[in-house]
Task: inverse folding
């Protein structure tokens, strides 16, 4: 076996004439092509992931439905939740940027994989946090509607509905409607995210495991 | 200044392009993927070039960037279709230099190497390039002892592939 590997080594080092030969111009042209590396994709997808939940809040219909609730306690709660939410989001964006910048192709293979995975994890925690916050917002709405009748009353056309059903009935319906809606929304968003994550990092993960196995 | 840097880089890469081609032929199975990976390695080398200040030889620095790109950054290699008409450059063996048994052995060996995992290929590649275990360990981020152990395991694995 040793002899065969040595034979291979000898042949390997003689390779040269058989290899393709690119000209100066051909190489120069490549310098300005777009990279299709995993790090570039992580950046693109992460920026999308970070901005998408924010864009949802900007939808006019969502904003309008929030403005419907003209109730000071309710609004104060939303305000506090929002301030907390955005403070954490800004922290995550900072952390993501810092870690992204630390990724360098000059590292050894293991460190490079470590840093890519860490950067990716930052976005992962951000997504988990964002989804949980979405759910908290939904829950808050549901509870407000349940316990504060004037929130329900402030919805346009509510009096019409009240003629047909009792207040208690409507309360429960709205409460469970919002809770279930929030639950499915969180589930679908989470599903899309984990699918993307799996596709993108499949190969890296398996190579990382192979390297890790060497250390045991 | 930028033009000067670019000229310097392209000249260096042109002179050392064999290293990149060898990595590409190990990690890809058709001409398109080979060129694709070559291009990605070139882009990564160029992006990292300002940080390379001649502390080590240009070629030493290339090994690391090229392997990192092939193992970690490059994503397309999973969806390869092996085309019939294309024979990877590493399979082209100069028949006149070897006797028939040796030629057959070499073909089998190259085939066996192609079947290894990404990390194993990196080890074999550095070994074939005559790098010592210290450099292999540093490039991959493992200890020297583990690099030796792994290389021995790969030798055994190649043996099993060759003599099933």
Result:
């Amino acid at each position: 076996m040793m002899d065969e590997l040595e034979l291979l080594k000898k042949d390997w080092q003689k390779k040269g004439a058989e290899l393709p030969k690119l000209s100066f111009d051909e190489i120069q042209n490549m310098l300005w092509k777009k990279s299709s590396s995993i790090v570039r994709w992580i950046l693109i997808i992460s920026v999308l992931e970070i901005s998408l939940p924010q864009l949802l809040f900007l939808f006019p219909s969502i904003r309008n439905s929030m403005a419907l609730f003209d109730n000071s306690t309710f609004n104060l709660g939303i305000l506090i939740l929002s301030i907390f939410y955005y403070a954490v989001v800004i922290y995550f964006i900072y952390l993501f940027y810092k870690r992204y910048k630390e990724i360098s192709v000059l590292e050894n293979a293991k460190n490079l994989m470590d840093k890519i995975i860490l950067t990716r994890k930052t976005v992962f925690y951000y997504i988990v946090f964002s989804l949980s916050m979405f759910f908290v917002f939904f829950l808050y709405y549901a509870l407000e509607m349940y316990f504060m009748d004037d929130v329900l009353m402030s919805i346009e056309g509510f009096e019409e509905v009240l003629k047909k059903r009792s207040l208690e009935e409507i309360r429960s319906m709205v409460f469970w409607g919002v809770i279930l809606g929030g639950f499915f929304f969180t589930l679908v968003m989470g599903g899309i995210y984990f699918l993307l994550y799996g596709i993108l990092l499949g190969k890296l993960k398996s190579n990382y495991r192979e390297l890790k196995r060497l250390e045991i | 200044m930028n033009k000067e840097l670019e000229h310097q880089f392209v000249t260096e890469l042109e002179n050392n392009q064999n290293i990149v081609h060898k990595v590409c032929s190990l990690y890809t199975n058709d001409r398109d993927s080979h060129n694709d990976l070559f291009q990605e390695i070139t882009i990564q080398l160029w992006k990292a070039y300002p940080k390379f200040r001649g502390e080590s030889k240009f070629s030493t620095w290339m090994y690391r960037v090229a392997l990192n790109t092939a193992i970690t950054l490059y994503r397309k290699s999973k969806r390869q279709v092996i085309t019939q008409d294309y024979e990877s450059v590493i399979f082209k063996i100069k028949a006149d230099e070897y006797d028939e048994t040796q030629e057959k052995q070499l073909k089998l060996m190259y085939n066996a190497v192609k079947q290894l995992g990404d990390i194993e290929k990196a080890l074999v590649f550095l070994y074939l390039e005559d790098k010592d275990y210290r450099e292999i360990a540093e490039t991959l981020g493992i200890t020297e002892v583990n690099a030796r152990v792994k290389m021995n395991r790969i030798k055994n694995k190649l043996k099993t592939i060759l003599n099933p």
In short: The two ends of chain B are 58 Å apart (CA to CA). Chain B touches chain A through 73 residues (CB under 8 Å).
